[in-house]
Specification:
Blueprint: E1 3-6, E2 11-14, E3 18-19, H1 34-46, E4 51-53, H2 62-74, E5 79-84, E6 86-88, E7 93-95, H3 99-113, E8 120-123, H4 132-144, E9 151-154, H5 159-164, H6 170-179, E10 187-191, H7 203-210, E11 213-217, H8 249-254, H9 256-269, H10 275-284, E12 290-293, H11 299-307, H12 315-322
Parallel strand pairs: 3-4, 4-5, 5-8, 8-9, 9-10, 10-11, 11-12
Antiparallel strand pairs: 1-2, 6-7
Length: about 325
């Protein structure tokens, strides 16, 4: 697989990563099977998808434990990204950016991941009660201690920006400019897909201008852009899409022309090329510093996603994607 670099340290990863969250968190619980997920992680490494993206809150904790079982056997082959800063309660999630907590959380992640170093340690969300510079300073001390190789930041939530009329990622850029004064940012993780392109406006150019890697979260639109979801089929109550405005039967039906367009483009490249592969190839085409991190928990989907790294969209293809209908339905 093509290799791409993250940040000024030029850390190399496969062009398509693996989002491990669906194996333990946020998606249909009845379809989460540990042994099957383990095989999926092994398949990702076999296919060159070396970036494994997890977080301590996924599960919570169980996702890191699962990834750790693979790392115990294949640590040299993997690029490990995990996150800190969010705590999961009974019915809520809260931020914790206190320096002491960050250091304890890192040690706990290292134990669960069965490794002595994290390749990319990301701040999941800034704590509104703690200056982000203090949190970032504690994370930088972990680099100095040899427990972490590089630091990243996840984009802040979108709802407040949309309500205020500001550009979607203005808040994230302000945070980035503050923490960059403390220690270099190697990567930013934010949503980017065919039906969610806001990062192209300012955030992606900010990263490109500074040599910062961009990890494209949800590049398959929470599964919609794969073309494998049936409108009206419904989701189990523990699946985040059960409460998502774009995943009502009405909105899924209304947005089918987007999938149809991806499928049409794929056919020009071969009968076996899927809408998901076209969607990932589009993300890859947004810049050499961009690494899509599609979530998957089955070997089949991991292999299909990895193959997208070899798909090169033409100028005609990219123009056709740009001309697809805008997604209907709120993304909040």
């Amino acid at each position: 697989m093509e290799r791409r670099t993250i940040g000024a340290a030029a850390l190399e990863v496969g062009a398509v990563g693996l989002g491990c969250m669906p194996m333990s968190w946020a998606y249909t619980g009845s379809r989460q099977r540990g042994e099957e997920s383990l095989r999926a992680v092994h398949k990702a490494l076999d296919r060159g998808s070396t970036l494994l993206d997890t977080a301590d809150m996924y599960g919570p904790f169980t996702n890191e434990l699962l990834v750790g079982r693979v790392l115990k056997e294949r640590r040299p082959e993997a690029f490990v990204s995990t996150k800190v800063g969010l705590l999961v309660g009974e019915q809520h999630i809260v931020a914790n950016g206190r320096p002491g907590y960050v250091k304890r959380a890192c040690d706990a992640s290292l134990r669960r991941l069965q490794t002595d170093v994290i390749d990319l340690y990301q701040l999941h969300r800034a704590d509104p009660e703690v200056p982000v510079e203090e949190t970032w300073g504690a994370m930088a001390e972990l680099v100095s201690a040899g427990k972490v190789r590089s630091l990243g930041l996840c984009a802040v939530g979108a709802r407040s920006a949309r309500r205020s009329g500001a550009r979607l990622h203005d808040g994230t850029i302000r945070q980035l400019e503050r923490v960059q004064q403390v220690f270099p940012v190697s990567a930013v993780e934010a949503e980017l897909s065919v039906w969610s392109t806001e990062a192209l406006d300012a955030l992606l150019p900010w990263c490109a201008a500074r040599g910062v890697g961009f990890l494209a979260a949800m590049p398959l639109g929470n599964g919609f852009l794969t073309g494998t979801l049936t409108p009206g089929e419904g989701f189990e109550p523990d699946d985040l899409r059960a409460r998502h405005p774009r995943f009502t039967a009405e909105m899924m039906a209304a947005n089918q022309p987007i999938v149809a367009g991806l499928r049409r483009i794929g056919r020009r490249h071969g009968d076996a090329v899927t809408p998901a592969q076209v969607a990932l190839a589009w993300v890859l085409a947004q810049g050499p510093h961009v690494v899509p991190v599609p979530g998957a928990k089955r070997e089949r989907w991991v292999a299909e996603n990895a193959e997208a790294a070899g798909l090169r969209l033409t100028a005609e293809d990219l123009a056709e994607v740009a001309g697809l209908p805008a997604a209907q339905g709120s993304w909040d």
